[in-house]
């Protein structure tokens, strides 16, 4: 010890001042470096947090874009809830990212439409939600705070604006808070790798956590944290604070475009970890500056102190139990003699220790073999020995001193009296065994199995007790865990709302059933246990059980096995069974979960029936629309409509009227078009009602709003004559359907039935749709009639003008030539008279041709009766051939043109032939008409004077009208002509335009 102190003093006097100076310089440099590093770290974290907030805002912008694209759909801004629901269903794939559901709020904040999974929200008032009030104020994308529903959600809301940018409602997409496993919202946050170096969390404007790198904190309220209060004030920056026992740096920034804030927390020590390498580098330099000189001095001092060191080492070895140590020193002084005596003492200790060690090893082997703690208590002196294993069992080290009082205090108070009574008992049997609890060093209690034996004096009183302790805590805990597990299983089993059974896999005997199963099947517990499902007739078809057991044995599990089950009362239920094979006491059992799907199946059938009814109604509406769109015959349209409505509505009679407006009169006139199912007498009476205002008021005026009206005949005013007529016919119920077009009433359809019945709102909706569809067709027919009348007037005006400009002038010229010829003949100038008669003949022939052209410009009857080719042949025979023009007419293929296309092609051909006669003065005309697979082609070629197409004035020769007619039917018109070489007119009509 003295030499060691001397060695240290030598080293200290030489190198301590140098070490202090080096250490001071190193610390100054290190702290300066650390200060700069801290400033850089704070700035970096602030920028990183703001960048992360911007990235998060960009990531969630896609959700609002998805909703905005959908909100611009007319199905949403027109305000029809059913169309909105259908639109949500049609876009279910695009909206699947919103795991919390999608809803539509009307302008008042009421839930008007939802997806299928959230139909329970229909009709709820969300007007008080913060995001709805915000979207009302600024009509833009809005992000909500956590909404306190059954399952907390956050919402992305966009306004629904119509074409005039008027607010029509709100489209809301929701994400479940905390659903990180399957949420697109949380998935996008995770993709940003936010909080990779610490804790990053996202809070709403109320301080609740939307996202946290530790999912256990999601949904918690952190508003009181200083950094959260700052970020909710839309500030950004950094704050150094403490979290529990850790010094942290919290960076914060608001998320642009949202009311949320982003906070990033990192341990201050981890941020400064980069400086540790520099610190270690300085320490290495300092160590080198101190250690190297120290080694040099130490080597010199070592040669002086080595003998003493060897003696000290040898003494320590002996003190540690390593006897027999021998030291060799050649100093030729007192130290050498001291070492010699030391060697003698070491040999003697070695011999004594060897004998003692053998006895201790035998005892140690016994103690280790049992792995128990050994204790020995002298009741007379209260001295106690506790083995290292005994101490270790209670968390103490081998060298911890535990006296009698300490040992007694370790015994649980409830076990102390029993334990000491057992040990000090004067029973004849010296052996004892008991369980007690001893307190562990950490404060918990361990279960101990104590076994021992007592030494007794002549009076049988124990004076020394020894024994062993075995730690049975884990076994006791395992037994308790098994007991608690069985208890929890029993509680869950019987409290479960799902019917559950445990049956023997071999014969189906019921081992256990829960209350839900007993309630479903109507049995008492003692009626079931011990009996099989077959003996209770649970299976309506026993073969199905054999099939289920076969599948269960092959796979060990079964899901959704459907079968018919019979209750105690005989009621048949449709159930789904999911089962697992389990082992209890080395025997195999069937654990089955039974789901009653009877009501679900019935609901499914009801839905299928309703879908079939709606499909039938839509088919009817489609059939009516098809007839209305392909025909302009009002009687055909209304007759077909009436037949379809009567069939769908299962009603016996109907009448369809057209509204004829009478200017200057208070009431318009009802024009009956078709009747169905009524007697001739009632039909005649209905025809006479066209001017009766009472019937008009009841059957028409009440329907102006566009909604069908249903009225009972018996409720009509008694003075209405139609009431008596309908009662005579036996009709009890009338439904009046308004036919409207552009908000104007154009007709009425009345339906009647002799049997009392109720017309549902769905049927009224269908009738209203039919009324609107057919009303448009009625209005189109009326407009078509007006157009035909206008065309007839225009045609008569044109013919009058043509007669005046051509035929009348020619006839007047004939008159003049005839008078002139008569005068010449009277005067004897026969040669001049013959010349005038020739002029008269030519003028008369020209007038005749003009008359024929005017007659055939009208639509010939042959066009409707025989078709286009026959009409064209009739025209050529009546005009060109009789006018002295040589005609070649060729037809190729089978004609299959519609009447409207035939009419337009005929007018084009007619105009081309008129030009041939009037302007070209042709002697020969070739007409080729071909009906091919891909088109119909008409070619008209003449050998007339021709013309220069480039110098032709606009609209000349009727070419403009020919082009308009060709464009109208989607045909191509081609005209080729050259002066003195005739003209070619070609019309090509594609097949798809037929």
Fraction of residues in H or I helices: 40-55%
Q: Note the gap between the termini.
A: 123 Å
Characterize the biggest β-sheet. Answer: 5 strands, antiparallel
What integer is the average pLDDT? 78
> Which strand order do you get reading across the main beta sheet?
2-1-5-4-3
Count of discrete alpha- or pi-helical segments spanning 4 or more residues: 27
What overall form do the CA principal axes indicate? elongated
Number of strands: 30
What percent of residues are in strands?
A: 15-25%
Which structural class do you get from the secondary structure elements? Answer: alpha+beta
Our Rg estimate from Cα atoms comes to 56 Å
Report the uncertain regions: 691-696, 698-704
Please tag this protein with its features.
alpha+beta; 27 helices; 30 strands; about 1000 residues
Write the layout of secondary structure elements.
Elements: H1 2-71, H2 74-77, H3 81-90, E1 101-105, E2 111-114, H4 130-138, E3 142-143, E4 153-161, E5 167-176, H5 184-191, E6 199-203, E7 209-212, H6 226-232, E8 237-243, E9 246-254, E10 261-267, H7 268-271, H8 274-319, H9 334-370, E11 373-378, E12 383-386, H10 388-393, H11 404-410, H12 413-423, E13 431-439, E14 445-456, E15 462-471, H13 473-495, E16 500-504, E17 510-513, H14 515-521, H15 525-528, H16 542-555, E18 557-566, E19 572-584, E20 587-596, H17 598-630, H18 634-649, E21 653-660, E22 669-676, H19 680-687, H20 693-699, E23 709-712, H21 721-729, E24 733-741, E25 744-753, H22 761-827, H23 830-857, H24 861-865, H25 868-881, E26 886-892, H26 899-920, E27 924-931, E28 935-942, H27 959-968, E29 972-977, E30 983-990
Parallel strand pairs: 26-27
Antiparallel strand pairs: 1-2, 1-5, 3-4, 4-5, 6-7, 6-10, 8-9, 9-10, 11-12, 11-15, 13-14, 14-15, 16-17, 16-20, 18-19, 19-20, 21-22, 21-25, 23-24, 24-25, 27-28, 28-30, 29-30
């Amino acid at each position: 010890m003295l030499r060691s102190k001397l060695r240290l003093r030598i080293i200290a006097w030489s190198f301590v001042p140098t070490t202090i100076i080096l250490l001071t310089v190193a610390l100054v440099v290190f702290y300066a470096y650390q200060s700069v590093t801290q400033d850089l770290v704070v700035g970096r974290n602030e920028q990183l947090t703001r960048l992360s907030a911007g990235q998060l805002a960009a990531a969630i912008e896609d959700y609002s874009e998805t909703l905005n694209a959908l909100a611009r759909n007319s199905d949403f801004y027109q305000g029809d809830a059913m169309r909105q629901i259908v639109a949500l269903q049609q876009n279910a794939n695009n909206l699947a990212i919103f795991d919390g559901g999608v809803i539509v709020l009307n302008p008042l904040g009421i839930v008007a439409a939802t997806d299928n999974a959230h139909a329970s929200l229909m009709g709820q008032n969300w007007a008080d939600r913060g995001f709805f009030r915000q979207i009302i104020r600024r009509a833009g994308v809005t992000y909500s705070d956590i909404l306190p529903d059954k399952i907390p959600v956050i919402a992305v809301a966009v306004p629904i604006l119509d074409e005039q940018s008027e607010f029509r409602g709100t489209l809301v997409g929701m994400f479940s808070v905390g659903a990180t496993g399957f949420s697109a919202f949380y998935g996008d946050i995770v993709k940003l790798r936010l909080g990779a170096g610490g804790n990053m969390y996202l809070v709403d404007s109320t301080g609740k956590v939307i996202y946290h790198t530790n999912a256990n904190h999601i949904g918690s309220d952190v508003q009181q944290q200083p950094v959260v209060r700052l970020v909710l004030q839309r500030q950004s920056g950094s704050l150094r604070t403490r979290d529990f026992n850790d010094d942290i740096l919290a960076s914060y920034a608001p998320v642009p475009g949202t009311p949320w804030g982003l906070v990033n927390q990192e341990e201050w020590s981890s941020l400064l970890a980069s400086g540790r390498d520099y610190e270690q580098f300085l320490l290495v330099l300092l160590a080198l500056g101190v250690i190297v000189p120290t080694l040099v001095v130490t080597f010199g001092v070592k040669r002086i102190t080595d003998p003493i060191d060897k003696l000290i080492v040898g003494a320590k070895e002996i003190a540690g139990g390593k006897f027999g140590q021998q030291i060799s020193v050649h100093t030729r002084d007192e130290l050498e003699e001291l070492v010699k005596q030391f060697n003698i003492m070491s040999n003697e200790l070695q011999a004594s220790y060897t004998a003692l060690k053998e006895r201790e090893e035998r005892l140690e082997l016994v103690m280790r073999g049992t792995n128990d703690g050994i204790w020995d208590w002298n009741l007379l002196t209260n001295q106690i020995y506790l083995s290292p294993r005994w101490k270790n069992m209670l968390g103490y080290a081998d060298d911890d001193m535990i006296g009698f009082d300490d040992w007694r205090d370790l015994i649980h108070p409830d076990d102390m009296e029993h334990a000491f009574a057992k040990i000090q008992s004067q029973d004849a049997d010296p052996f004892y065994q008991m369980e007690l609890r001893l307190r562990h060093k950490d404060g918990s209690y361990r279960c101990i199995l104590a076994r021992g034996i007592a030494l007794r004096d002549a009076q049988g009183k124990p004076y020394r007790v020894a024994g062993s302790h075995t730690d049975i805590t884990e076994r006791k805990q395992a037994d308790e865990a098994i007991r608690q597990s069985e208890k929890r299983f029993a509680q869950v089993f019987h409290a479960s709302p799902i019917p559950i059974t445990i049956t023997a896999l071999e014969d189906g005997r019921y081992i256990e059933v829960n209350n839900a199963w007993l309630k479903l099947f109507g049995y008492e517990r003692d009626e079931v246990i011990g009996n099989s499902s077959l003996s209770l007739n649970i299976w309506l078809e026993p073969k199905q059980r054999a099939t289920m057991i076969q599948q269960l044995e092959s796979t060990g599990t079964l899901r959704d096995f459907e079968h018919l089950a019979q209750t105690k009362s005989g009621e048949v239920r449709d159930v789904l069974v999911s089962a697992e094979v389990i082992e209890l006491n080395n025997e195999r059992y069937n654990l089955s979960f039974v789901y009653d799907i009877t009501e679900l199946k019935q609901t499914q059938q009801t839905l299928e029936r309703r879908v079939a009814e709606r499909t039938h109604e839509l088919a009817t509406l489609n059939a009516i629309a098809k007839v209305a769109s392909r025909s302009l015959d009002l009687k055909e349209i209304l007759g077909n409509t009436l037949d379809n409505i009567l069939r769908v509505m299962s009603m016996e009679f109907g009448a369809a009227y057209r509204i004829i407006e009478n200017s200057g009169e208070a009431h318009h006139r009802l024009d009956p078009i078709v009747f169905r199912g009524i007697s001739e007498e009632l039909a005649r009476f209905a025809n006479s009602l066209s001017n009766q205002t009472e019937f008009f008021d009841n059957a028409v005026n009440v329907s102006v709003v566009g909604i069908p009206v249903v009225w009972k005949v018996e409720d009509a005013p008694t003075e209405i004559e139609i009431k008596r007529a309908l009662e005579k016919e036996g009709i009890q119920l009338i439904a009046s359907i308004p036919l409207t077009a552009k908000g104007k009433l154009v007709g009425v359809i009345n339906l009647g039935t002799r049997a009392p019945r109720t017309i549902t709102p769905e049927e009224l909706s269908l009738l209203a749709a039919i009324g609107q569809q057919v009303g448009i067709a009625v209005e189109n027919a009326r407009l078509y009639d007006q157009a035909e009348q206008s065309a007839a007037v225009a045609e008569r005006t044109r013919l009058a003008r043509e007669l005046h400009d051509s035929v009348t002038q020619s006839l007047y010229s004939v008159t003049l030539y005839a008078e002139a010829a008569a005068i010449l003949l009277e005067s004897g100038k026969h040669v001049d008279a013959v010349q005038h008669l020739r002029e008269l003949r030519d003028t008369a022939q020209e007038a005749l041709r003009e008359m024929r052209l005017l007659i055939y410009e009208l639509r010939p009857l042959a066009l409707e009766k025989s078709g286009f080719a026959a009409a064209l042949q009739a025209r050529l025979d009546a005009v060109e051939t009789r006018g002295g023009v040589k005609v070649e007419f060729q037809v190729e293929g089978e004609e299959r043109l519609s009447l409207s296309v035939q009419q337009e092609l005929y007018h084009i051909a007619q105009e081309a032939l008129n030009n041939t006669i009037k302007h070209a003065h042709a002697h020969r005309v070739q007409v080729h008409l071909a009906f091919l697979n891909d088109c119909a082609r008409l070619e008209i070629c003449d050998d007339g004077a021709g013309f220069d197409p480039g110098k032709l004035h606009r609209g000349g020769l009727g070419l403009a009208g020919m082009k308009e007619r060709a464009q109208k039917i989607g045909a191509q018109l081609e005209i080729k002509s050259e002066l003195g070489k005739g003209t070619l007119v070609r019309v090509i009509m594609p097949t798809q335009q037929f």
